[in-house]
Amino acid sequence: MTVTVRFAPSPTGHIHIGNSRPALFNWLFSRKEGGRFVLRFDDTDLERSKQEYAESIEKDLRWLGIIPDFIERQSRRVASYDVASQKLKDAGLLYPCYETPEELDRRRSRQRSLGRPPVYDRAGLKQTAEERAAFEAEGRRPHWRFILPNHDADPFETKRTDVTWNDLCRGEQSVDLSSMSDPVLIRADGTYLYTLPSIVDDIDMGITHVIRGEDHVANTGVQIAIFEALGAAAPIFGHHNLLTTRDGEGLSKRKGALSIGSLREAGLEPMSVASLAVLTGTSQAVEPVQDMDALIGKFDLASISRSSAKFDPEELKNLNARLVHELPYEAVSDRLADLGIEAGADFWETVRGNCETVNDAADFWQIVTGPVVSRIEDEDREFVAKTRNFLPDGEITPETWSAWTSALKSETGRKGRGLFMPLRRVLTGMDHGPDMKAMLPLIGRRNILDRLP
Known about the structure:
Shape: elongated
CATH architecture of the largest domain: 3-Layer(aba) Sandwich
CATH superfamily of the largest domain: HUPs
CATH class of the largest domain: Alpha Beta
Number of helices: 19
Distance between the termini: 75 Å
Function: Catalyzes the attachment of glutamate to tRNA(Glu) in a two-step reaction: glutamate is first activated by ATP to form Glu-AMP and then transferred to the acceptor end of tRNA(Glu).
EC number: 6.1.1.17
Mean pLDDT: 94
Low-confidence stretches: none
Keywords: Aminoacyl-tRNA synthetase, ATP-binding, Cytoplasm, Ligase, Nucleotide-binding, Protein biosynthesis
Number of strands: 12
Strand content: 5-15%
Family: Belongs to the class-I aminoacyl-tRNA synthetase family. Glutamate--tRNA ligase type 1 subfamily.
Strand order of the largest sheet: 1-2-3
GO molecular function: ATP binding; glutamate-tRNA ligase activity; tRNA binding; zinc ion binding
C-alpha cells in the first residue's frame, strides 16, 4: 500500500500560517513514508471559489517547499458525487427534508429551552409523498440528509452507537452517533457540502491517511459511517492541535492573519515559517531547521501535544534571524543581486549577523556605498575633527580599525564607547551594526574620508 495523503483547501482566500500546519504535516508524513501528496481544491462553492486564490495557494505551498504529486479540483468531479449520492438514495440512506433555515433555527431554540440537545428529529423521514409534493408546489426544494446508523429497525428509536478509531495524534477516540444530527450532504440548491465530495475523493484517490486539525474530530464518526455506507474502508485519521496566537486567538483567511504571501513579502525565510508551524505545540524545541530534509527527520505526529499550539508572531522574527545568521553566501547570492547588491562573500559574512531578513542586507549595502547621514554629537565634535589626521595610510584592511583607534586613544585619552561610538556614528550613521573592523574595508578610503569632517 502506497501512503497517500491530501491537503484540501477551499480557494476562497489566501492561506495563512495556521493553514500551513496541516499542509506541512501531510507533506512531511508523505515524504517520511515514501508516499504521495495530493493537493485537492474544495471548490464546489462556485460563488466564493476563485482561480486567483487557487493559484495563490499553489504558489504559497511551493514557496514553503511543498510540491504536490497530483493536483485535483472538486469542481471537475461533480459527476462522481452524483453517482455516490444516488447510491445512498437508492439504499434509503439519503432522505429529503424541506424545512427552511428559519424553521430549523426555531426548532433548535425550542429544544434548547426544554433542556434537550438540538439534534434533528428526522421529521423529513415522516413526510408523505403528498406532503412533499405540497412543499414542491410552494417552490421549496429539499436538502438531503444522511441517516446515521444509530438505530436498529426504527430510525426514531436511536441508541448509543460509538464509532472508534486509533488517532495518529490523539490515541483512541470515540464518537457517539446518537448525540448527533443526521448531516446535510446536499443543499437545497443541489450543490454539495464538503462532506460527501471529500469522502468520494478520498475513496477514488486512494487516500490512506487523513491528517487534519482537531476541529474535525467530531466529524470523523459521521464520515466513517459514510465511508462504510459507500462500501469503502475509512482511512487512518490523525487530528493535530490548531495553531493560534499567544492569546489563543484563531487564525482565519478572512482576517488575512499572517498570510503566507505577506510573510514571504516581508522577506521571511520559508524554513523559518515551516519550522514554527511544525514544531510549535509539540514536545520538541521550537528552533530554526535549515532545510526540509532536516525537518522530515524531526517530524513525529506522536510528539504533538493535546493542548493548543500557541505562538508569538515575534518568535517568527527571532527564528528567521537565527536562520539568516547561518545562511552561507551561496544560498543568498542571487537574492543579494536582485537587491542591487554588487558584493561578494566578504560583505555577506560581515553583515548577516545583524540581519533579521536577507532583505536587511540592502540597508548595510547603503552604508557601504553611501551616501549616509553622518551623526556627530556636540560633545564629540572636537574629537571627530581630529580623526582624519590619524587614519592610517595605504590600503584599508581589517587591521586598519585597530591601528586607527589605538592612535586616537593615545592622542585623546578616549577609550571604550567614547572612542568607538563617535566613529561608528560618523561613518555609518548608526549606533550599532556589524563589526567595524570588517566594515571599514568594505566602506573604503574614499567614502571614509568623504564622511569625516
